[in-house]
Amino acid sequence: MNFEAIVFYMFAALIVFAALGVITARNPVHAVLFLVLAFISSAGIWLLLEAEFLAIALVLVYVGAVMVLFLFVVMMLDINLVRLREGFWRWLPFGAGLAGLMAFEMIWVLGSEKSAGSAVAVRHAADYSNTKVLGRLLYTEYVYPFEIAAVILLVAMVAAIALTLRRRKDAKSQVVADQIAVKKADRLRIVPMKSARNDQ
Asked: For a Cys-Cys bond, which of 28, 102, 150, 172 suits 74, CB 3.0-4.6 Å?
């Protein structure tokens, strides 16, 4: 067993441990931190596969943005932990069966003749750039799926903003133009009143 295999099994063990920690942690903040550990370990496996760009993107996008957002949302929300854990044991057999099915599928695919025959490590030159090759593939052969994915994400973002900023009947809003154009007579009325003090 060489050094790369040892590092791979170490990262794989960390991913399995972190995944179990995500679903078994009682505190939601701890579950999010376990998920961060799983993402960082996955980035280490990407580095072993010489996919540096994907590893950095995984750390920057998921760990640096999405998981931090999840962490702050979970910390700010008042989550009822007792209610959150009510259905854990009820759905545990289904989850275990689903995990076993996925493990069987992965072992079946990796143990097939095509996968076993192509499992040869490819050695690249020192000046090989994974990012350059990935960019060339994205913008030449896969440019249409890439653009379609970008349009779908843009539509989803616009829809999320539209749903958030939609006008509701029970919402009160201010019209700044009407506030600026107001006149003194519209807001102020002078009412004459008799003095309550007797002048001597």
From this structure: 28
- Report angle CA 119, 123, 124 to the nearest 5 degrees: 135
**Longest alpha-carbon distance in the chain:** 116
pLDDT digits (tens, 9 = 90+) for 21-59: 988 887 777 888 898 899 999 999 988 888 888 888 888
Task: Name the token pair of 140.
Answer: 């030449």
Contacts 24+ apart (CB under 8 A), 48-54: 48/4, 48/7, 48/8, 48/11, 50/124, 50/128, 50/130, 51/130, 52/130, 52/131, 53/130, 53/131, 53/134, 54/134
CB 39 within 8 A of CB 59: yes
pTM for the complete prediction? Answer: 0.57
Work out the mean pLDDT of the chain and round it to a whole number: 80
pLDDT tens readout for residues 183-192: 877 777 788 8
Q: How many angstroms separate the CA atoms of 30 and 28, rounded?
A: 5
Burial 156-167 (b: 16+ CB within 10 A, else e): eeeeeeeeeeee
